[in-house]
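G., the chain you wanted modeled:
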Amino acid sequence: MATVILPTDVGGTESYRTLEPRAFEVARPGGFSRVAYSAVHVVTDPLADCDPWLDAAIDWDATITYRRYLWSLGLGVAEAMDTAQRGMGLDWTRSLELITRSIAAAREFETETGKPALLASGAGTDHLTPGPDVTIDDVIAAYEEQCEAVEAAGGRIILMASRALAAAAKSPDDYIRVYDRILNQVREPVILHWLGEMFDPALAGYWGATEHSQAMDTCLEVIAANAAKVDGIKISLLDDQKEITMRGKLPGGVRMYTGDDFNYPDLIAGDSAGHSDALLGIFDAIAPAASAALGALARQDMKTFHDILQPTVPLSRHIFRSPTRFYKTGVVFLAYLNGHQPHFLMVGGQEGARSTLHLAELFRLADQAGLFADPETAARRMAAVMAVRGIAG
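Predicted structure as tokens:
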């Protein structure tokens, strides 16, 4: 195997030796017993002449290639979500181009392979800047604009939480009004997305309440009134008990998509009372393991399912540790280490959002989960990043 010099949390450095990679038996597309989306990242163009903190220069070829890779593993793609730095460097104009390109790529993948390419795309209000003059009608109009654009491109909608709505709403009734209006207009059932404040502080108090149990009641009221237009809801609160509670209250036929990057194995496995499907940012980073585990679950091989996923949980909890909104750095870093892109550069310069110690521990945890397909390449790339950050090999 390979060795790399890593910093330690007690000061100084250590010579870390990688383990043998794990051989994952990835599943065929369409071979799962759960619906499984990966919220997927974007790849920047390192040769673009731009200001990284201000402009989103996307490497379209590398970005779309990664989506084809996920489809080849049987995973769906949740496009233009927070993992793609939506509203955190990726604006609506580029998001729509990303969505349009991904829809075309999904069609090409299906034509070329004869296999499904599951894709759903985020529609929100991020082109509307929150402010004291923004009204509920403005929020509705913004949602309508993006939903119409996604549908016109031939896409399915993930209805994203709105910062503008969180700022403008005065009560739960305002949320009910907005969601009733939008859900009444969409052509196909959508996936709702309740993104917690740990992911985006601007969404604190969503659904008109700071207490999650009260917010949940309003959300459930919206779903019950519009069940025919709701495929499911993804909640990202990093609290498995809240998800299980809400899951048990959903109308029949409405899916719970776990967005819990801390507790996903047990939530997906489920119990006699039910299970969660998946729409997870961590699936971007652990895609082969996720595919193999979901394939085992489809065979009802629960031991293999847990044997594969449990070692990835410490890694995921590390990537999504507080401040959780910076988790994208870890996701893109793993894509770099595993050779899916030739650099570690991100939209908005967010490659600098996590510390050197954080990246070092991420490397150890990914290696211990068997996630490096080529440990020598991963170690060489890790050493290059460490050198830039002052850790000499």
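The mean pLDDT is 96.

Shout if anything looks off.
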